[in-house]
Amino acid sequence: MPRTATHRRSLTKETVNRIKARTSKFVVWDSATPNFGLRVYPTGSKSYVLRLSFTNSDGETVQRMETVGDAADFPDPEAARKAALELRQRYKAGEDVRATRATLKSRDVTLRQAMEMYLEARASGTKPMKESTAADYRAKLGFGMAQFMDNPLVKLDAETVIRWHRQRKLEAPTRADGEARYLRAVWNWTREELPSLELPEWPTGRWSKQKEWSPPVRRKRRLSRETAPLWMDNTRRWPNPRDRALFLLLYFTGWRISEAMNLRWSDVDLDQARVWLRDTKARETHQLPLSRQAVAALNGLPSDTEWVFPAPLKDGGVGPMVLPSKAVVRHRKQSGVEWSAHDLRRGFISIGEAIGVPSAAVRRLTGHVVNQRDAHDGYIDFDADDLAPHAQRVSDALEAMTAGNGEILRIPVMRAYA
Predict the structure, then answer these.
(1) Rounded distance, CA 129 to CA 137, Å?
(2) Per-residue model confidence (pLDDT) at position 283
(3) Contacts of 376 (CB under 8 A, 6+ apart)
(4) pLDDT score of 51 more than 70
(5) In terms of Cα–Cα distance, which of 139, 138, 184 is closest to 165?
(6) How would DSSP label each residue in 313-334?
(7) Cα 1 from chain centroid (whole Å)
(8) pLDDT tens digits, residue range 321-356?
(9) How far is residue 25's CA from residue 3's CA, in Å, rounded to a whole number?
(10) What is the mean pLDDT of the chain?
(11) In angstroms, how far is CA 325 from the centroid of its own chain?
């Protein structure tokens, strides 16, 4: 910060207009009114200031330079002097005017601003929030609470929130709960960080007692032995090789679609049938095996870019592909099968359990979090070689299902002996 030069003269309207800017800021103190002056910045802007001393709420003496206002906002220095004297009286009466301004300003904080402050704070630290999660906050709150986003947060009381949630549940109960949980996170963080807002506690107790949360609904849809052949037939005839490979890879691995879309060739070894998945939803990086079917899905793709599934960017570069929503919609119409990328994940997990693959192996193949509270589960440490036979068994069973083979799991017949 540059040193503030000081001068003293009688401040009149003509004097204020004649004072020229310099390379560093300086203050011209008024010879008539003690500690009242004009601060001039290198940019040429000017403001009236007041140097004062006061006792704060802790009984400490504080020295402060307070800005009275921009020179352009006053018709002449005399009007600024009156404002400075009023400001001094407020401090003498025990009011910290700067703190008052901060409080009034903070009470204008909107829900959108509070959300952005929360997301900025969560972007750093020991466990930073993923960019995809931050984007989900903006999308869900921005849509579900659009009518409140640009209103002061202090006006969003418990009654308003509960009425909003009840109405929103009539349209989309699961989304309403997700939006309410995001709002609760923003609310609780803001309540601690901006105590001047005097936000009440989030009505968690009332929310639970009055059964405001919707009953949890777990989606169970997946490809069946009737729909899998139709799905696979249409997928193998799919004209876009990139989308076709993505659909097949998801079917034979059970990965999350985001993990597949962000895959880099540097993390793929098709000769060894191994792949590295980095920074997954569980914040882990691990090596996984690829089944014969998964390797075949990737084998025909060009590797002339960094990304396994590339997409052109607006700036002319190349990045990872975005969600192929339109392609999935077209696939549904052509195949006559309702499906989503997560249906393929559920199918992999379900078939793995059905054919007797250990649950711990299925969880690691699909990147689910290991239960650290379970001592037995915490001891299990599969590597890619351990998981390879299990991955192949599941892929073989899934391939058999697309062929219309209902005998995926053959149980040997027990013979009776005399």
Answers:
(1) 11
(2) 67
(3) none
(4) yes
(5) 184
(6) -TTS-EEEPPP-HHHHHHHHHH
(7) 36
(8) 988 999 999 999 999 999 999 999 999 999 999 999
(9) 8
(10) 85
(11) 21
Distance, in Å, from the CA atom of 281 to the CA atom of 285, rounded to the nearest integer, reads 10
DSSP result, 241-286 = HHHHHHHHHHHHH---HHHHHT-BGGGEETTTTEEEE-S-TTS--E
Q: CA 92, CA 121: separation in Å to the nearest integer?
A: 37
pLDDT of residue 410: 44
Q: Which residues make Cβ contacts (< 8 Å) with residue 199, sequence separation at least 6?
A: 153, 154, 187, 190, 191
Pairing state of beta strands 26-30 and 5-9?
A: parallel
Strand-pairing partners, residue 50, are: 36, 66
Locate all alpha helices (DSSP H) within 107-216, ordered by sequence.
111-122, 131-144, 158-171, 173-193, 204-209
pLDDT score of 316 more than 60: yes
End-to-end CA distance of the chain: 100
Sheet holding 268-269: strands in order across?
A: 268-269, 274-277, 286-289
Element spanning 66, H or E: strand 61-70
Residue type, 199: L
Find, among 125, 124, 113, 193, the residue nearest to 156 by Cα. Answer: 113
Residue type, 254: G
Is a pLDDT exceeding 90 seen at residue 241?
yes
Going from the C-alpha of 388 to that of each of 132, 217, 383, 399, the distances in angstroms are 30, 33, 9, 16
Q: CA-CA distance, 271 to 177, in Å (whole number)?
A: 46
Query: Residue 383 has what pLDDT?
Result: 82
**Confidence category of residue 90, pLDDT binned at 50, 70, 90:** confident
Angstrom distance (rounded) from CA 355 to CA 358: 9
Residue extent(s) of CATH 1.10.150 domains in the chain: 111-209
Task: Kindly report the CATH number that applies to the domain delimited by 227-402.
Answer: 1.10.443.10
* Interatomic CA distance for residues 373 and 378, integer angstroms: 8
Return the CATH architecture of domain 111-209.
Orthogonal Bundle (1.10)
Q: Where in the chain is the domain with CATH 1.10.443.10?
A: 227-402
Within 10 angstroms of residue 15's Cβ, the number of other Cβ atoms is 14
Helix 77-92 × helix 97-106 angle, to 10°: 90
